Amino acid sequence: MIKKKQSIVPNNGPHLITDNVPFEYVEAYKAMRTNFNFVTANGKAQKIIVTSSLPNEGKSTVAINLAISLAQADNKVLLIDADLRNPVLRRYLCLKVDHQLGLSALLNGDVKVGDCLIKTEYDVDVIASGPTPPNPAELIRSDAMRSLLEGAAENYDYIICDTPPVGVITDAAALSPLCDGVLYVIRQKYSNKSQVRNAIKKLQAVDAKILGTILCQYEIPKRLGKGYGYYHSYRYRTE
User: 144-161, pLDDT tens digit by residue?
Assistant: First the structure.
């Protein structure tokens, strides 16, 4: 049974582009959406992984706001919390859902998709992570996950998967063969070049298609001033 729509109310989590946030913040995500459409114009990237090198780089914020931005452009979007080790979407979005109903239970065959699907007021459907399993990496790359993504692809324009940091856990790399591409999030002055380089190598080792990198918490050089443009919060660079 599909749940009724829930309001998304952040709980000390990310700023949503539907909130009262600065203009440049919203415009940066619109620019990301536009660039994303250009990148995928010649070959539709429908099933997308969002990852980073380290925790706390902003990947979950990017995943949430990218999903909302795509939905605002009249796309049907499914957001999946594929971080079965340290999930945050349920907490960030204050989703009122039974913790036992989520991705891990779905992949184990304990529940059906309709039991886990949460519809939100922003026309983004969400599947939370569910209870922490003893074998997250195996579940993420399982045939059940492949079937879930293939089935979702028939009903959604985009499926956004928030995954653990690839520089710490291999889950994103394990999931990448089942998806069409990866958006790689880098937080300025947080992860260093060596950490980014090693994480990218892990993705390249499994032939993951890196669609682009997203620089979070970008600080405009003082010499450029506040009128530099609307890329104050985020920048998007295609590969």
Answer: 999 999 999 999 999 999
Residues with Cβ within 8 Å of residue 140, at least 6 apart in sequence: 82, 84, 163, 171, 174, 175
CB atoms within 10 A of CB 228: 12
Confidence of residue 224 (pLDDT cuts 50, 70, 90): very low
pLDDT exceeds 80 at position 139: yes
Residue 31, phi then psi, degrees to nearest 5: -65, -40
Measured CA to CA, the distance from residue 132 to residue 136 in angstroms comes to 8
Alpha helices in the chain (DSSP H): 23-39, 59-72, 89-92, 103-107, 113-116, 136-140, 143-153, 171-175, 193-205
The end-to-end CA distance of the chain, in Å, is 41
The pairing of beta strand 77-81 with beta strand 124-127: parallel
Look up the pTM and report it: 0.84
Q: Which helix (H) or strand (E) holds 52?
A: strand 47-52
3-state secondary structure of 133: coil
* Cα(66)–Cα(70) distance, integer angstroms: 6
To which residue do tokens 């203009």 refer? 23
Domains parsed from the chain with CATH numbers: 23-238 (3.40.50.300)
CA dihedral 97, 101, 104, 110 (to 10 degrees): 180
Nearest to 124 by CA among 60, 205, 83, 63: 63
